[in-house]
Specification:
- It contains eleven helices and 15 strands.
- It is of the alpha/beta class.
- The strands form three sheets. It has a six-stranded antiparallel β-sheet, with helices on one face. The chain has a six-stranded mixed β-sheet with strand order 8-12-13-3-14-15, with helices on both faces.
- α4 packs across α5.
- The protein is globular and about 70 Å long.
- It starts with a strand and ends with a strand.
Length: 363
């Protein structure tokens, strides 16, 4: 996967901008609040069809403009391709790949392999459970588009069941919804189980390279009910767990068991990272996770993903920063930072300076 060109118009604080990228390390630098992260956000749209920030579509449109447009030219899966996304207030995004409009947003998933690492990614280790579930959903959808469909189906049933719970339902009526929730939820759990089985050993290896062999990282899937290797048995286990919680769910008015309550856990040398790890160790956990995600994505798709690094060197010390640059040598990377200096300057192939929504190529 190689991104050759990005152009935007009326996107965030950019009236127009166009960047041509090298196949190595591309550095976008400038002072804070100039628009550097906005350019990464524009690229990420072609991976997830939405911002990696917690914002609505309208916030990506330049002030007092009717629409924002983002275009890309890239090489992936053996051919040259192009992408276009038009964002209009109150309307569904118009997404084109190779000039052909996509009927569903989910059709975009997997076509533009990309991994993002930003300071917010540290919250996967330190933040609330929903942050970790969002990571799980995004990471699996990137190489298993069918997972996205399964997730949407589960969430539809979950919302309908929650609406029923607020009415004080009869037990028999609730059991009918539990069957549906178990059927849809079991599919998600099987996807997640396979994902963590593949991801965890790669995370451990990345962590050993960064931190040495004295610390061992485990990344664990913590489901809300027991796991099974069989889909049919998983449906049964989840249904039984739901039925056991039926009285409590009626009392509390919400669903207490299922993939919407799943977790992931980081342990360093057998200890819970959230409770016992130092700040440096938690940063290493997050870095190991994102690097492992890139390795796994390449294994599953056959495409080396584009790497986006948003102002991460302020969060990493010198050794971790140097390891990250060394590990990514030879890969296409787009990196934002405040200064073009040090290892970034030595490793960079192309430099772009951003000043208040304008770009100039720097040498």
């Amino acid at each position: 996967m190689k991104l050759s060109r990005l152009s935007v118009s009326d996107f965030r604080n950019f009236e127009t901008a166009e960047l041509e990228f090298s196949e190595g390390l591309n550095v976008i630098y400038g002072k804070n609040a100039q628009g550097k992260t906005n350019l990464l956000e524009a690229v990420w749209l072609f991976t997830a069809a939405k911002s990696f920030r917690a914002v609505g579509d309208s916030e990506m449109i330049r002030f007092e403009k009717d629409a924002a447009t983002v275009k890309t030219e890239f090489f992936a899966f053996g051919r040259e391709n192009s992408g276009e996304i038009i964002i209009s207030p109150g309307k569904r995004k118009l997404i084109k790949i190779g000039g052909v409009p996509l009927e569903k947003t989910s059709e975009l998933l997997g076509q533009f392999p990309c991994v993002l690492f930003s300071p917010d990614e540290l919250h996967i280790v330190t933040g609330a459970p929903e942050v970790r579930r969002r990571f799980i959903d995004s990471a699996i959808s990137a190489f298993r588009p069918a997972y996205y469909g399964a997730l949407r189906a589960y969430l539809r049933v979950w919302k309908q069941k929650n609406a029923l719970l607020k009415t004080g339902p009869e037990k028999e009526a609730l059991s009918v919804w539990n069957v549906q929730l178990a059927n849809e939820g079991a599919r998600l759990m099987q996807y997640r189980k396979a994902f963590f089985e593949a991801l965890s050993p790669i995370c451990a290896e990345m962590h050993r390279e960064i931190a040495g062999k004295n610390e061992e990282l485990e990344v664990l899937y913590v489901p809300s009910c027991p796991l099974s290797p069989s889909l049919e048995e998983q449906k049964t286990l989840l249904y039984e767990a739901l039925e056991k919680k039926r009285e409590a769910e009626i009392y509390q008015g919400l669903s207490l068991i299922g993939p919407h309550r799943d977790e992931m856990k980081f342990t360093v040398s057998g200890k819970d990272a959230r409770a016992f790890a130092s700040q440096g160790q938690m940063k290493t956990c997050a870095l190991s996770l994102k690097l492992a995600q890139g390795v796994l994505l390449e294994e599953k798709t056959g495409e080396e993903p584009l790497i986006l690094l948003d102002d991460v060197f302020g969060e990493l010390d010198g050794d971790r920063s140097q390891f990250l640059l060394s590990h990514l040598a030879g890969k296409q990377v787009i990196l934002t930072c405040t200064e073009k200096e040090g290892p970034v300057e030595r490793a960079g192939k192309r430099f772009f300076e951003v000043k208040d929504g304008s770009i100039c190529i720097s040498t």
